[in-house]
């Protein structure tokens, strides 16, 4: 005969803001890439690419460089979110995520599959909103006697 083990509650560890930001940027990049990859299955897209057109743009080194830049920035945000000093990470995330909102919304212009693009863009915008929220609400610590802030150090030096 088996005795029942008492159920326990799982410990819910707090997740550092940096990890939340890096995870959100990673998720954003997966969506960004998969929407583009799945777009190849939209009728006419591959033919247009083979004819040298993407949306309304001619395929060129300039277009490809711009597209690479648009993808590389969020990719780099994963690393920067984990490695920059806290203040720089917060500011960088606020700026870059805010700039990507109109870039992401622009992707809906002229698309013929509104449900597909609408869902992809909506999910990307939710992730960008989370990034802005995480960065905006970054927890602050009160200055302590063992680790004084800059103003405290300056005040002590002037005294």
How would you explain this protein's 3D organization?
The chain is mostly helical and 159 residues long. The chain has one domain. Helix content is 66%, strand content 3%. It contains six helices and two strands, in the order ααββαααα. It has a two-stranded antiparallel sheet.
What's a concise summary of this model?
By secondary structure, the protein is mainly alpha-helical. It has helices at 17-39, 45-50, 61-83, 86-106, 114-136, 150-158; strands at residues 53-54, 57-58. Helix 1 runs antiparallel to helix 3 (61-83), helix 1 packs antiparallel against helix 5 (114-136) and helix 4 (86-106) packs antiparallel against helix 5.
Indicate the percent of residues in helices.
Answer: 55-70%
Total number of domains:
1
SSE pattern: HHEEHHHH
Give the amount of beta strand, in percent: under 5%
Mean pLDDT comes to 86
| SSE-based structural type | mainly alpha
- Mass-distribution shape: flat
Query: Are there runs of 5+ residues with pLDDT below 50, and where?
Result: none
**Counting H and I runs of at least 4 residues, what is the number of helices?**
6
Which strand order does the major sheet show?
1-2
Q: Compute the number of strand runs.
A: 2
Largest sheet: 2 strands, antiparallel
Distance between the termini: 75 Å
- What is Rg? 22 Å
Tag the structure with descriptive keywords:
159 residues, mainly alpha, two-stranded antiparallel sheet, 6 helices, flat
Topology, please?
Blueprint: H1 17-39, H2 45-50, E1 53-54, E2 57-58, H3 61-83, H4 86-106, H5 114-136, H6 150-158
Antiparallel strand pairs: 1-2
Helix pairs in contact: 1-3, 1-5, 3-4, 4-5
């Amino acid at each position: 005969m088996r005795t029942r083990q008492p159920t326990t509650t799982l410990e819910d560890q707090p997740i550092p803001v940096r990890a939340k930001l890096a995870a959100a940027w990673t998720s954003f990049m997966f969506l960004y890439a998969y929407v583009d990859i799945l777009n190849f299955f939209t009728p006419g897209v591959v033919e247009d690419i083979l004819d040298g057109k993407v949306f309304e743009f001619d395929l060129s080194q300039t277009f490809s460089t711009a597209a690479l830049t648009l993808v590389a920035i969020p990719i780099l945000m994963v690393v920067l979110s984990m490695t920059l000093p806290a203040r720089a990470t917060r500011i960088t995330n606020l700026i870059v995520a805010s700039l990507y909102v109109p870039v992401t919304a622009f992707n809906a212009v002229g698309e013929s599959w509104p449900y597909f693009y609408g869902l992809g863009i909506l999910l990307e915008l939710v992730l960008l909103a989370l990034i802005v929220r995480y960065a905006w609400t970054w927890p602050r610590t009160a200055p302590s006697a063992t680790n004084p802030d800059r103003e405290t150090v300056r005040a002590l030096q002037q005294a």
